[in-house]
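Archive entry. Fields below.
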Amino acid sequence: ETGVTQSPTHLIKTRGQQVTLRCSSQSGHNTVSWYQQALGQGPQFIFQYYREEENGRGNFPPRFSGLQFPNYSSELNVNALELDDSALYLCASSLPRGLAAAEQYFGPGTRLTVT
Amino acid sequence: SQQGEEDPQALSIQEGENATMNCSYKTSINNLQWYRQNSGRGLVHLILIRSNEREKHSGRLRVTLDTSKKSSSLLITASRAADTASYFCATDSGNNRKLIWGLGTSLAVNP
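PREDICTED_STRUCTURE:
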Protein backbone atom coordinates (compact mmCIF):
# COMPACT_ATOMS: atom_id res chain seq x y z
CA GLU A 1 0.00 0.00 0.00
CA THR A 2 1.11 3.53 -0.72
CA GLY A 3 0.93 6.23 1.91
CA VAL A 4 -1.50 8.25 -0.21
CA THR A 5 -4.95 8.70 1.28
CA GLN A 6 -8.08 10.19 -0.24
CA SER A 7 -11.39 11.29 1.18
CA PRO A 8 -14.21 10.70 0.90
CA THR A 9 -14.34 7.18 -0.54
CA HIS A 10 -17.71 7.64 -2.19
CA LEU A 11 -19.82 10.69 -2.90
CA ILE A 12 -23.19 11.30 -4.52
CA LYS A 13 -23.97 14.79 -5.76
CA THR A 14 -26.66 16.44 -7.82
CA ARG A 15 -26.04 18.13 -11.14
CA GLY A 16 -25.04 21.79 -10.66
CA GLN A 17 -23.58 21.27 -7.20
CA GLN A 18 -19.97 21.72 -6.19
CA VAL A 19 -17.62 19.11 -4.72
CA THR A 20 -14.26 19.09 -2.95
CA LEU A 21 -12.08 15.99 -2.89
CA ARG A 22 -9.04 15.68 -0.64
CA CYS A 23 -5.70 13.91 -0.88
CA SER A 24 -2.77 13.44 1.47
CA SER A 25 0.48 12.65 -0.32
CA GLN A 26 3.04 10.04 0.63
CA SER A 27 5.58 11.33 3.15
CA GLY A 28 8.32 13.32 1.42
CA HIS A 29 6.49 13.64 -1.90
CA ASN A 30 6.09 17.26 -2.97
CA THR A 31 4.18 16.68 -6.21
CA VAL A 32 0.52 15.72 -6.48
CA SER A 33 -1.36 14.84 -9.65
CA TRP A 34 -5.09 14.36 -10.08
CA TYR A 35 -6.70 12.01 -12.58
CA GLN A 36 -10.25 11.24 -13.67
CA GLN A 37 -11.00 7.64 -14.60
CA ALA A 38 -14.31 6.79 -16.23
CA LEU A 39 -15.52 3.20 -16.14
CA GLY A 40 -13.56 1.01 -18.55
CA GLN A 41 -11.12 3.78 -19.43
CA GLY A 42 -7.59 4.72 -18.49
CA PRO A 43 -6.95 7.64 -16.15
CA GLN A 44 -7.10 11.11 -17.69
CA PHE A 45 -4.68 13.73 -16.35
CA ILE A 46 -6.47 16.71 -14.81
CA PHE A 47 -3.59 18.71 -13.36
CA GLN A 48 -0.47 18.54 -11.23
CA TYR A 49 0.71 20.61 -8.29
CA TYR A 50 4.34 21.10 -7.32
CA ARG A 51 5.27 23.13 -4.27
CA GLU A 52 1.78 24.67 -4.09
CA GLU A 53 1.65 25.81 -7.72
CA GLU A 54 -0.16 24.29 -10.68
CA ASN A 55 2.48 22.66 -12.84
CA GLY A 56 0.67 21.30 -15.88
CA ARG A 57 -2.96 20.81 -16.83
CA GLY A 58 -4.88 18.40 -19.02
CA ASN A 59 -7.92 19.09 -21.20
CA PHE A 60 -10.34 19.92 -18.41
CA PRO A 61 -12.46 23.09 -18.15
CA PRO A 62 -11.75 25.80 -15.56
CA ARG A 63 -14.55 24.52 -13.33
CA PHE A 64 -11.97 21.88 -12.30
CA SER A 65 -9.59 23.62 -9.93
CA GLY A 66 -7.19 22.61 -7.23
CA LEU A 67 -4.98 23.60 -4.37
CA GLN A 68 -1.85 22.27 -2.75
CA PHE A 69 -1.01 23.11 0.85
CA PRO A 70 2.38 23.60 2.55
CA ASN A 71 2.25 20.02 3.84
CA TYR A 72 1.80 18.91 0.18
CA SER A 73 -1.75 17.66 0.68
CA SER A 74 -4.12 18.71 -2.05
CA GLU A 75 -7.74 19.40 -2.94
CA LEU A 76 -9.64 19.00 -6.17
CA ASN A 77 -12.69 21.23 -6.58
CA VAL A 78 -15.30 20.76 -9.25
CA ASN A 79 -18.00 23.39 -9.74
CA ALA A 80 -21.29 23.14 -11.62
CA LEU A 81 -21.23 19.35 -11.66
CA GLU A 82 -22.37 17.59 -14.82
CA LEU A 83 -23.54 14.00 -15.25
CA ASP A 84 -20.34 13.22 -17.21
CA ASP A 85 -18.27 14.12 -14.15
CA SER A 86 -19.30 10.78 -12.64
CA ALA A 87 -16.04 8.86 -12.37
CA LEU A 88 -13.30 7.61 -10.08
CA TYR A 89 -11.00 10.49 -9.09
CA LEU A 90 -7.46 9.43 -8.35
CA CYS A 91 -4.76 11.34 -6.60
CA ALA A 92 -1.11 10.39 -7.03
CA SER A 93 1.98 11.72 -5.33
CA SER A 94 5.52 11.62 -6.64
CA LEU A 95 8.96 13.13 -6.45
CA PRO A 96 10.13 15.30 -9.35
CA ARG A 97 12.27 13.55 -11.95
CA GLY A 98 13.67 16.56 -13.73
CA LEU A 99 11.32 17.45 -16.58
CA ALA A 100 10.04 13.89 -16.98
CA ALA A 101 7.10 12.30 -15.22
CA ALA A 102 8.07 10.26 -12.18
CA GLU A 103 6.64 7.06 -10.77
CA GLN A 104 3.19 7.84 -9.41
CA TYR A 105 1.96 6.52 -6.06
CA PHE A 106 -1.82 6.40 -6.12
CA GLY A 107 -4.44 6.70 -3.46
CA PRO A 108 -7.51 4.44 -3.46
CA GLY A 109 -9.64 7.04 -5.23
CA THR A 110 -12.95 8.80 -4.64
CA ARG A 111 -15.95 7.43 -6.52
CA LEU A 112 -18.14 10.41 -7.52
CA THR A 113 -21.66 9.87 -8.79
CA VAL A 114 -23.57 12.84 -10.20
CA THR A 115 -27.34 12.40 -10.50
CA SER B 1 -7.18 12.07 -25.22
CA GLN B 2 -5.40 8.72 -24.98
CA GLN B 3 -1.84 8.46 -26.26
CA GLY B 4 -1.24 4.82 -25.58
CA GLU B 5 -3.15 1.89 -26.98
CA GLU B 6 -2.82 -1.47 -25.28
CA ASP B 7 -3.27 -4.68 -27.15
CA PRO B 8 -5.04 -7.01 -26.61
CA GLN B 9 -8.00 -5.39 -24.85
CA ALA B 10 -8.55 -8.59 -22.89
CA LEU B 11 -6.49 -11.70 -22.25
CA SER B 12 -7.39 -14.91 -20.44
CA ILE B 13 -4.72 -17.49 -19.56
CA GLN B 14 -4.11 -20.37 -17.18
CA GLU B 15 -1.98 -20.06 -14.07
CA GLY B 16 1.66 -20.74 -14.87
CA GLU B 17 1.46 -19.46 -18.44
CA ASN B 18 3.16 -16.28 -19.65
CA ALA B 19 1.16 -13.17 -20.51
CA THR B 20 2.28 -10.59 -23.04
CA MET B 21 0.58 -7.26 -23.59
CA ASN B 22 1.59 -4.50 -25.93
CA CYS B 23 1.38 -0.74 -25.92
CA SER B 24 1.70 1.60 -28.87
CA TYR B 25 1.97 5.36 -28.62
CA LYS B 26 1.97 8.29 -30.99
CA THR B 27 4.61 10.87 -30.07
CA SER B 28 8.21 10.70 -28.87
CA ILE B 29 8.53 10.11 -25.15
CA ASN B 30 10.78 10.75 -22.16
CA ASN B 31 9.76 7.53 -20.48
CA LEU B 32 7.06 4.86 -20.48
CA GLN B 33 5.52 3.36 -17.37
CA TRP B 34 3.40 0.30 -16.73
CA TYR B 35 0.79 0.15 -14.00
CA ARG B 36 -1.57 -2.50 -12.67
CA GLN B 37 -5.05 -1.85 -11.34
CA ASN B 38 -7.28 -4.25 -9.46
CA SER B 39 -10.13 -3.72 -7.07
CA GLY B 40 -8.12 -4.85 -4.06
CA ARG B 41 -4.96 -2.76 -4.35
CA GLY B 42 -5.92 0.13 -6.61
CA LEU B 43 -3.49 1.49 -9.21
CA VAL B 44 0.10 0.39 -8.62
CA HIS B 45 3.29 1.35 -10.42
CA LEU B 46 5.12 -1.65 -11.90
CA ILE B 47 8.07 -0.43 -13.92
CA LEU B 48 9.46 2.66 -15.66
CA ILE B 49 11.62 2.45 -18.76
CA ARG B 50 13.44 5.47 -20.12
CA SER B 51 13.48 6.34 -23.81
CA ASN B 52 17.18 5.37 -24.06
CA GLU B 53 16.61 1.92 -22.56
CA ARG B 54 15.53 -1.12 -24.55
CA GLU B 55 14.71 -3.68 -21.88
CA LYS B 56 14.09 -3.77 -18.17
CA HIS B 57 13.32 -6.54 -15.68
CA SER B 58 11.63 -6.57 -12.31
CA GLY B 59 10.96 -9.96 -10.76
CA ARG B 60 8.60 -11.81 -13.11
CA LEU B 61 8.11 -8.71 -15.26
CA ARG B 62 10.02 -7.92 -18.42
CA VAL B 63 9.43 -4.71 -20.34
CA THR B 64 10.82 -3.86 -23.76
CA LEU B 65 10.74 -0.55 -25.55
CA ASP B 66 11.16 0.05 -29.28
CA THR B 67 11.18 3.79 -29.87
CA SER B 68 11.50 3.36 -33.65
CA LYS B 69 8.15 1.53 -33.66
CA LYS B 70 6.74 3.60 -30.81
CA SER B 71 5.80 0.47 -28.94
CA SER B 72 6.42 -1.38 -25.69
CA SER B 73 5.59 -4.82 -24.40
CA LEU B 74 5.04 -6.16 -20.90
CA LEU B 75 5.73 -9.84 -20.29
CA ILE B 76 4.57 -11.50 -17.08
CA THR B 77 6.15 -14.92 -16.65
CA ALA B 78 4.71 -17.83 -14.67
CA SER B 79 1.44 -15.98 -14.06
CA ARG B 80 -0.55 -16.35 -10.85
CA ALA B 81 -4.22 -15.81 -10.07
CA ALA B 82 -3.15 -12.70 -8.14
CA ASP B 83 -1.92 -11.17 -11.43
CA THR B 84 -5.57 -10.82 -12.52
CA ALA B 85 -5.94 -7.08 -13.10
CA SER B 86 -6.03 -4.36 -15.72
CA TYR B 87 -2.63 -3.27 -17.01
CA PHE B 88 -2.01 0.24 -18.33
CA CYS B 89 0.87 1.88 -20.09
CA ALA B 90 1.43 5.58 -19.54
CA THR B 91 3.77 7.78 -21.51
CA ASP B 92 5.42 11.05 -20.74
CA SER B 93 6.37 13.40 -23.55
CA GLY B 94 7.44 17.01 -23.56
CA ASN B 95 8.52 18.74 -20.39
CA ASN B 96 5.30 19.12 -18.45
CA ARG B 97 5.59 15.89 -16.43
CA LYS B 98 2.14 14.85 -17.69
CA LEU B 99 1.34 11.15 -18.06
CA ILE B 100 -0.94 10.08 -20.91
CA TRP B 101 -2.61 6.71 -20.40
CA GLY B 102 -3.90 3.96 -22.62
CA LEU B 103 -7.20 2.15 -22.25
CA GLY B 104 -5.61 -0.89 -20.64
CA THR B 105 -5.45 -4.65 -21.09
CA SER B 106 -7.71 -6.73 -18.87
CA LEU B 107 -5.84 -9.88 -17.80
CA ALA B 108 -7.61 -12.86 -16.25
CA VAL B 109 -5.43 -15.64 -14.84
CA ASN B 110 -7.47 -18.76 -14.20
CA PRO B 111 -6.41 -21.15 -11.43
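CURATOR_NOTE: Chain B touches chain A at residues 1-2, 4, 30-31, 33, 35, 41-45, 48, 88, 90, 92, 95-104 (CB under 8 Å).
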